[in-house]
Design a protein that fits this description.
The chain has 4 domains: about 120 residues, Orthogonal Bundle (Arc Repressor Mutant, subunit A); about 90 residues, Beta-Lactamase, CATH 3.30.450; about 55 residues, no CATH class; about 150 residues, Histidine kinase-like ATPase, C-terminal domain (Heat Shock Protein 90), CATH 3.30.565. It is built from 13 helices and 15 strands. The strands form 4 sheets. A 5-stranded antiparallel beta sheet has the order 5-4-8-7-6. Strands 10-12-13-15-14 form a 5-stranded mixed beta sheet, with helices on one face. A hairpin with a 5-residue loop joins strand 14 and strand 15. The protein starts with a helix and ends with a strand.
Length: about 450
């Protein structure tokens, strides 16, 4: 028996051949006959016999193979077969465990599927699966109950307004469109279920329809009420403001210091209310697209100077320092609606004054590049809570203070700024500063 027998006997076929030859020591036969006696395949037996012969465990004369007399494979074969059977038993045990795990996995998958279906059916929004072939699959009862979906089988069968909304939602997911289907209004969102594969096949798309009918109706009623109130307030408030302006004229004497201070307070208050009314009216016109922009060549720095002059007394009450940083290359000229842009600058500056700490600095910087002019307003207040940073330019939104309360104001000032700037083709943003304060930014095309 060679010392490297473990390297020679490395297959069940070799063990079967050695076992057969040891049990039939007088056997001398061909590969074909030995393959038949052992039940092995012809090629498998040929390779096994040749390797056994090369390892000096089997003799060979031409095409005849036989067991060498000095070979005593019986104990070796018995041990190898025992090991093989032991391994087979372990394998069967492992296969049984795998089958049990597969059964448990199928049970969990089924449970998850049932749970997913239950969740989908409980969702108030309509969910549709759009396949690359154009076939649509309503995923829950809300979707199946919509006539425009239940009667359709493919994407082309849907209402044209809905297909257009889905296409827009797919191309621009950050700005989901609205669509009116029957008497209901929906916001449409679309998201690919998975990335396109290597073959370039488009992914399946999940389309979600959010029913916002009640919200839209509430917003419409609130806007109608706002229009009615502002129109009813405008005339009397204009009269009150003019009356106070008349009283504070030097030629209308007869008032002591106390009376004059009261009249000045009334004048400032009436101007403030009149400004709120004007903001509401202009916001409504901007939302409806009915506010005409009277564009002329303007200077951005002149808006800042005018805003400083108007709000200087308010800043003085809070002991704030107002600082203007002008570009070294000269005044920033651009074509815009001067009245509206002055009010934009006033709103940004008054907002910074309102949120600044007493004795702080409010800084306004202007400048331009090849395409845009910009206006940055910085304060040294407590900053904006991170979750609210992206909402400061929303309608009626007011930033909460460190104590969780809301500051005085209508929540329309920065919304008005955004509408005016966007009407000019520009943009707005807000960011916090270190160590404290925030910066509001406005970009306008030259």
């Amino acid at each position: 028996m060679p010392q490297d027998w473990k390297e020679v006997i490395d297959s069940v076929a070799k063990l079967e051949l050695l076992l057969f030859l040891s049990e039939n020591p007088s056997t001398m036969d061909t590969v074909e006959s030995l393959a038949i006696w052992t039940g092995l395949g012809l090629e498998e037996a040929r390779l096994a016999l040749e390797e056994l012969a090369d390892g000096a465990l089997v003799g060979r004369t031409g095409e005849i193979f036989f067991l060498l007399e000095e070979t005593e494979p019986q104990p070796l074969i018995t041990k190898a077969l025992a090991d093989y059977r032991s391994q087979r038993a372990l394998l069967r045990k492992e296969l049984a465990r795998v089958r049990d795990n597969a059964t448990e996995l199928r049970r969990r998958l089924r449970t998850a599927e049932v749970r997913s279906v239950a969740v989908l059916e409980s969702i108030r929004e309509a969910i549709i699966l759009l396949r690359p072939s154009g076939e649509i699959n309503p995923m829950n009862k809300v979707a199946r109950d919509l006539d425009c979906i239940s009667k359709a089988r493919t994407f082309q069968d849907l209402d044209p307004s809905l297909t257009g909304a889905i296409e827009r939602a797919t191309m621009n997911p950050k700005h989901p469109p609205q669509v009116i289907l029957g008497s209901r209004t929906f916001v449409v969102r679309a998201a690919p279920l998975a990335a396109a594969d290597e073959t370039g096949s488009p992914p399946e798309i999940v389309v979600t329809l959010y029913d916002v009918t009640e919200r839209v109706e509430t917003e419409r009623l609130r806007n109608d009420l706002t229009r009615m109130i502002t129109h009813d307030l405008l005339s009397p408030m204009s009269g009150i403001a003019k009356a106070f302006e008349f009283l504070v004229q030097p030629e209308h004497g007869g008032m002591g210091p106390r009376q004059r201070r009261l009249v000045e307070v009334g004048q400032r208050s009436s101007r403030y209310i009149l400004g709120l009314v004007s903001n509401l009216l202009d916001v409504t016109r901007l939302e409806d697209g009915a506010l005409h922009l009277n564009r002329t060549l303007c200077c951005l720095e002149e808006f800042v100077e005018a805003a400083f002059a108007t709000l200087e007394s308010l800043a003085g009450e809070r002991r704030l320092t107002l600082e203007q940083r002008q570009p070294a290359e000269g005044p920033t000229k651009l074509t815009c609606d001067g009245d509206l842009m002055l009010r934009v600058t006033m709103n940004l500056l008054s907002n910074a004054i309102k949120f600044s700490k007493r004795g702080g600095l409010v800084e306004v910087e202007t400048g331009r590049d090849a395409r845009f002019a910009w206006l940055f307003v910085r304060d040294e207040g407590s900053g904006i809570p991170e979750p609210e940073l992206g909402r400061v330019f929303e309608k009626y939104f007011r930033v909460s203070t460190s104590r969780g309360s809301l500051p005085a104001g209508s929540g329309l000032g920065l919304y008005f700024v955004r509408l005016v700037v966007e009407a000019h083709g520009g943009g707005v943003s807000a960011q916090n500063r270190e160590p404290s304060g925030c910066e509001l930014r406005v970009w306008l095309p030259l």
